[in-house]
């Protein structure tokens, strides 16, 4: 017992002697010039420590550091690249004898980092590391003889008021990122420790503030890091956000295999504006191009609500665009550095007032190529099936697609998508196409496509062809009082055709419409650039107009020319009355010939 007392007394005495020695004979400020000189030589920058360095002792040994600054290269503004107000590092003394590290406190306060990019392309980081010979030191294959640490314990880590200013002299813009606080509670290997942070950012087009909390654990073999129950709430404000503000909230758990360089994230809750989602994310970051796998399930998605509102513009005050102003292709070069697969399900999507449900999508991105291998969705009581590919390896992207739509109610689709009330019925549609450029105008011009459509049990809105025929018939008879008071709609049992799209114009050579009353056939074109329609059709009656104000004998069997012009929004229908009259006269002449022939035959038969 006495031995233990004497041993403890000896240890305490030694510690006191060390403390006295360090305090009296070993002033850390004596080494400030050497430290400053070493940093200056290594970085080529001006390094300054203005405050005195001071010791802390038993039960911890540590050092307090303050007033530290490292300059930017000569001629940069601001002059300082790094400024630190205060830094404290304290290590428990006794555990060091047992090959353990117990950090009582690590804290950093008031750090400012100024990273500048100048007009000539030079940056604050240029030349920060001293010149090297270029030869790498040989890697020793002998096993290390150094002792391994048996444990690490940290009483706490605190980082406050740390600010990073990214200054771009080319764009004359500054982005400021501020870590208001970061705290790590009592930490030990294989035990969860609480973490919390508050972060904010100011950028030219938005501001951001975020805070979060959770817990983390590092395995004893330092091969796995686990973060559990991490809640992050973020608020973004800017003119580009709906209502100038977007709030997000996420809860997730993360596992990082440090030895295998693999990360997995389980997102148990994600909300952003009116979006809610869950999903999983996996990243293998050990390869030159990280491999990413994602699987997300999203609820109702209203993209229209996320888009900024468009304010009315006085077109009389608009300044005409410069003639030499050319739209630029989107920069998709970043896709070359991606190796990703995505599985996505969405309960419903509304975009451009178009409603769809039950989305199922498989996408892969590799070597600059986006493959949409499958996209299924419910679309206006029908089904959408699409596969497509975008090749972004060149500056001007190319694409190809194969799209099939079955059983879709075409009238509400056209009204919601383009505010066009032109057709009704159950539509089936297929189209294959390819093209180059993602600029909207050039996309329409360069698109080459072929397809076929059929619409059943529908109607053509904006025109009542039977009524037009009756009106024309009455006028040919001299009755100019005929008026069209019926609904402008032509019912049909089927409407079919094929089309080829080239240079922004869809040519339809075989439009055919059938109904119990008439047949309609012909050809025409629709210009996607100007939305102009140009159709030349022929209608023929196949049944009596009796009961609808008409007479079977009047125009039955006569070809009736019909033209469709105007635009998608305002189509115009017109009968060619001159051709109609000629056809009717021709028909009457033929009938007269037949009657004369019959009369002659009767007379001849009487002899």
TrEMBL record:
Residues 2-173, 252-511 form the AsmA domain. InterPro entries: AsmA (IPR007844), AsmA-related (IPR052894). Pfam families: AsmA. Residues 575-602 form a coiled coil. Keywords: Coiled coil. It comes from the Bacteria. This is Cell envelope biogenesis protein AsmA. It comes from Shewanella glacialipiscicola. The lineage of its organism: Bacteria, Pseudomonadati, Pseudomonadota, Gammaproteobacteria, Alteromonadales. The gene is asmA.
């Amino acid at each position: 017992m006495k031995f233990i007392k004497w041993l403890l007394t000896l240890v305490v005495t030694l510690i006191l002697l060390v403390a006295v020695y360090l305090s009296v004979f070993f002033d850390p400020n004596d080494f400030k010039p050497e430290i400053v000189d070493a940093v200056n030589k290594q970085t080529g920058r001006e390094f300054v420590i203005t405050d005195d360095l001071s010791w802390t002792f038993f039960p911890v040994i540590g050092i307090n550091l303050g007033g530290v600054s490292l300059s930017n290269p000569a001629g940069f503004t601001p002059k300082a690249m790094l400024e630190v107000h205060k830094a404290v590092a304290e290590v428990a003394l006794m555990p060091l004898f047992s090959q353990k590290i117990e950090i009582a406190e690590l804290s950093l306060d008031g750090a400012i980092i100024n990273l500048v990019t100048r007009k000539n392309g030079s940056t604050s980081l240029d030349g920060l590391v001293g010149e090297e010979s270029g030869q790498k030191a040989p890697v020793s294959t002998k096993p290390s003889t150094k002792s391994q640490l048996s444990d690490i314990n940290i009483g706490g880590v605190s980082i406050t008021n740390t600010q990073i200013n990214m200054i771009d002299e080319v764009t004359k813009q500054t982005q400021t990122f501020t870590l208001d606080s970061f705290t790590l509670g009592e930490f030990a290997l294989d035990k969860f420790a609480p973490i919390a942070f508050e972060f904010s950012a100011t950028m030219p087009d938005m501001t951001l503030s975020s805070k979060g909390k959770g817990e983390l654990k590092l395995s004893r073999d330092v091969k796995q890091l686990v973060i559990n129950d991490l809640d992050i709430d973020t608020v973004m404000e800017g003119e580009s956000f709906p209502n100038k503000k977007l709030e997000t909230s996420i809860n997730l758990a993360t596992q990082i295999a440090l030895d295998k360089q693999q990360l997995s994230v389980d997102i148990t809750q994600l909300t952003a504006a009116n979006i809610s989602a869950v999903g999983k994310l996996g990243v293998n970051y050990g390869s030159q191009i990280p491999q990413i796998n994602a699987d997300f399930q999203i609820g109702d998605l209203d993209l229209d609500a996320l888009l900024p509102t468009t304010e009315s513009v006085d077109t009389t005050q608009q300044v005409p665009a410069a003639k030499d102003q050319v739209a630029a292709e989107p920069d998709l070069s970043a896709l070359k550095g991606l190796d990703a697969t995505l599985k996505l399900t969405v309960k419903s999507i509304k975009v451009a007032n178009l409603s769809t449900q039950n989305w199922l999508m498989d996408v892969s991105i590799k070597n600059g190529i986006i493959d949409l291998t499958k996209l299924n969705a419910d679309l206006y009581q029908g089904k959408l099936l699409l596969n497509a590919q975008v090749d972004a390896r060149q500056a001007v992207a190319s694409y190809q697609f194969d799209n099939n739509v079955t059983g879709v109610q075409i009238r509400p689709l056209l009204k919601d998508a383009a505010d066009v009330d032109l057709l009704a019925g159950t539509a089936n549609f297929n189209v294959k196409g390819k093209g180059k450029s993602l600029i909207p105008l050039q996309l329409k011009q360069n698109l080459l496509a072929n397809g076929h459509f059929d619409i059943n049990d529908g109607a053509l809105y904006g025109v009542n062809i039977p009524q037009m025929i009756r009106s024309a018939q009455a006028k040919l008879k001299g009755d100019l009082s005929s008026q069209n008071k019926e609904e402008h709609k032509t019912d049909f049992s089927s409407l079919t055709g094929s089309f080829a799209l080239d240079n922004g114009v869809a040519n339809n050579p075989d439009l055919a419409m059938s109904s119990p009353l008439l047949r309609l056939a012909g050809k025409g074109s629709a210009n996607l650039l100007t939305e102009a329609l140009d159709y030349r059709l022929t209608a023929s009656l196949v049944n009596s107009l009796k009961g609808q104000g008409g007479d079977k004998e009047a125009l039955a069997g006569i070809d009736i020319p019909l033209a469709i012009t105007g635009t998608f929004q305002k189509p115009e229908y017109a009968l060619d009355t001159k051709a109609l009259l000629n056809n009717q006269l021709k028909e009457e002449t033929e009938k007269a010939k037949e009657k004369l022939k019959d009369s002659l035959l009767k007379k001849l038969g009487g002899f």
